[in-house]
Design brief:
This protein has 526 residues and is α/β, with parallel strands linked by helices. Helix content is 40%, strand content 20%. The protein is built from 17 helices and 18 strands. Strands 2-3-4-5-6-7-8-9 form an 8-stranded parallel beta barrel, surrounded by 8 helices. The N and C termini lie far apart (54 Å). Bound molecules: 3-methyl-2-oxobutanoic acid (KIV) and zinc ion.
Length: 526
């Protein structure tokens, strides 16, 4: 009897390393929604945040820890090698049935000297004390040597050896700055595998600064890594982290080279990727492997001819295998509840009865405006619905571009406050969006310094819904919001209101508070 292939553990850090990158910030309800999707995808561990970084992060981790009970998925919090961090992480993980505490310290000479001001011995000492402390609170402890790739290999062996002896079960080798190459990292893993206790799981954590994160992760597996740390769509610091979907499909398609298995349900890859880009407002490039809109498009005549004769001529995996629906066009104004509910279930949404009813009403309204309602439209309805429903409503707006009259674009808006009172605002600006935001500022009585603004269509056709995404910095933290509408100016106004609401909530409510019911994924994206 042949032994089953060895398992590669998928450690998803979209909600920690991914979420901390510009344009990817998520609110607690959104994080929870995405964590549930990751569990459904079949990841082994969800790194849910960095508890000591903010109250909101700690609360987000705690909610995810409770929500993933019984799923078999581990929930992890990052912590520096500091007692306060470790205790905050352990507290946030209290409700988890498979908690993991992830401590890290930088080990490279550059970081030791310029960041920490620590000698090598002090680094080892801090790592050991942190792992021991973490082990007193949580069984499953992971230790990371930040900037491991630029660390002297003999020192890396010493730090990892000490961390393993102190009780760390997983030893993570981050290529923090995305510097390594496949041959180099494979050799490093072979060396570490030979030097470290056999029961310690070696893990790779690669960044994509040279576009090598996935190749390096695969090479690390060849060298002995049995856990890879990655993010959906490859989101993450600077150029991002290794993309989960690419690693998983490389392992699956090239079993001949990588005789391993993962727990991932590959048919959930596309829906999970799309969920993430709807939540963050960060679009996936069309030609992105596996989950990009063009990943399975065959445009050239020669390719189409080959495909018609035999799919394998130009297709190394089937689109259905990674979750692309055969047909994207599904619903229209005559579609009933059953069809909508079935499609929602296919897309991975499970809504309660009230939320389903609200969604159906809005689906009907959209179907009146649009001839065809695509999966992406439906997702946008669920995730981006009524960006201002829990607070201020946009009741009317008017824009004049000033074109041909030599005038500046001008806007007028009417808002309804939660107490029912109407508020009016007028504004002008360099362009219509600028004017609209000026009018909203006056009506809402709140100024936002918009750092980024992007609009993209969520489906196809002239009547496609547009998604507007905005971000701003508030008390040092990046906050973003997005909203959709068939009118991109309306989408922009709704996204602005959603962002304003997020800020107002931070000022008035407890840190990280979310509106009641927000975890049904049907609340405002704010
Ligand atoms: O890239 C990195 O070094 C990290 C560690 C904290 C694991 O994200
Ligand atoms: Zn990282």
């Amino acid at each position: 009897m042949t032994a089953p292939p060895e398992r590669i553990r998928i450690f998803d850090t979209s909600l920690r390393d991914g979420e901390q990158s510009p344009g990817c910030s998520m609110g607690p309800a959104q994080k929870l929604r995405f964590a549930l999707a990751l569990a459904e995808l079949g990841v082994d561990t969800v790194e849910a945040g960095f508890a000591a970084s903010s109250e909101a992060d700690a609360e987000g981790i705690a909610r995810i820890a409770r929500a993933l009970r019984g799923t078999g998925v581990g929930v992890c919090s990052l912590a520096r090698c500091r007692p306060g961090d470790i205790e905050a992480a352990a507290r946030a993980l209290e409700g988890a049935d498979a908690p993991r505490l992830h401590v890290f310290i930088a080990t490279s000479p550059l970081h030791r000297e310029h960041k920490l001001g620590f000698s090598p011995a002090e680094v080892v000492d801090a790592a050991v004390r942190a792992v021991e402390h973490a082990r007193r609170l949580v069984d499953d402890v992971e230790f990371s040597a930040e900037d491991a790739i630029r660390t002297e290999p003999e020192f890396l062996e010493a730090v990892f050896g000490a961390a393993a002896a102190a009780g760390a079960r997983t030893l993570n080798v981050p290529d923090t700055v995305g510097y390594t190459t496949p041959a180099e990292i494979e050799a490093l893993f072979r060396r570490l595998r030979a030097a470290l206790p056999a029961n310690a799981v070696l893990s790779a954590h690669c960044h994509d600064d040279l576009g090598l994160a996935v190749a390096n992760s695969l090479a690390a597996i060849a060298g002995g890594a049995r856990q890879v740390e990655c993010t959906v769509n490859g989101i993450g610091e600077r150029a991002g982290n290794a993309a989960l979907e690419e690693i998983v499909m490389a392992l699956s398609v090239r079993k001949d080279r990588f005789p391993f298995r993962t727990g991932i349900d590959t048919t959930r890859l596309v829906p999970t990727s799309r969920l993430l880009s709807r939540i963050t407002g960060m679009a996936v490039q069309r030609n992105k492997a596996i989950v990009g809109a063009n990943a399975f498009a065959h445009e050239s005549g020669i390719h189409q001819h080959g495909m018609l004769k035999h799919r394998d001529t130009y297709e190394i995996m089937r689109p259905e295998t990674v979750g692309w629906a055969r047909s994207q066009m599904v619903l229209g104004r005559h579609s009933g509840r059953a069809a909508v509910n079935e499609r929602l279930a296919f897309l991975g949404f499970s809504l309660d009865e009230a939320a389903t009813e609200r969604l159906f009403t809005r689906f009907k309204a959209l179907a009146e405006k649009k001839k065809e309602v695509f999966d992406a439209d439906l997702e946008a309805l669920v995730l981006g619905e009524d960006a201002n429903s829990a607070g201020w409503q946009l009741t009317a707006f008017h824009l004049s571009t000033g074109a041909g009259q030599g005038e500046q674009p001008a806007a007028a808006v009417e808002l309804r406050a939660p107490d029912g009172e109407a508020h009016f605002g007028r504004g002008s600006g360099d362009g219509p969006v600028h004017a609209l935001f000026a009018a909203l500022t006056e009506a809402r009585g709140l100024h936002l310094d918009i750092e980024s603004y992007a609009v993209h269509s969520v489906s196809s056709g002239e009547d496609a819904q547009g998604q507007a995404s905005l971000s701003t910095r508030h008390e040092g933290e990046e906050l973003s919001a997005s909203a959709t509408s068939t009118d991109i100016l309306e989408a922009s106004a709704l996204a602005w209101l959603a962002l304003a609401q997020r800020i107002a909530r931070r000022r008035t409510g407890p840190p990280g508070a979310v509106p009641a019911g927000a975890d049904t994924a049907t609340e405002a994206r704010a």
